[in-house]
Amino acid sequence: MFNLRTGLYALLFTVVVLSGCNRKDPEPENEKESINRMEVVFTPVTGGASVTFLFSDPDGDGGNPPTITVQPLRARTAYNVTLTLAKEEGSKREDKTAEIRTEADEHQFFFIINPATLMTHRYDDADRNNRPLGLRNVMETQAAGRGSLRIVLRHDLNKAFAGLNNTNFMQAGGETDIDVTFPVTVQ
Known about the structure:
Elements (H helix, E strand, L loop, with lengths): L3 H19 L14 E8 L6 E6 L10 E3 L8 E12 L2 E4 L1 H6 L4 E8 L4 E5 L12 E6 L3 E11 L19 E12 L1
Antiparallel strand pairs: 1-2, 1-4, 2-3, 4-5, 4-8, 6-9, 7-8, 9-10
């Protein structure tokens, strides 16, 4: 004789087993990059000695404060600016720059200059969709002064977001891989 309760359990068990067999594995996410070192090299377009800004935080958030070193920039000078990123652990350093370049369509750097009159910025590289990346840039200092340069790397953002720029980048979604503010002196 058919027992209704046993029949329902059997039906439920069959549905669960069959649905488990058809399940697809989720697509792997592009995980947040582990970056705790950023080197920014300013090379004068007309030639001359380069200037380097360096951020290093080998023990990550918390613990010891990060080390930030900067040098003054020359007033009214155009610079080719390159970024190099890495993950440091003890004496080991793993370069992350090539990975970011390879995944350019999923990454973008943003440059927040304060005050905005301190210098100008333009991207000098792009992803395969001709959208900015930011590993190579051109910056031109204006008159002498002091301020800051904040560099933010975002990944998994909507790079097609209408009007995406250095002030509204958070609206394009994604996650921050590294966010560093350098003090800037232009002389």
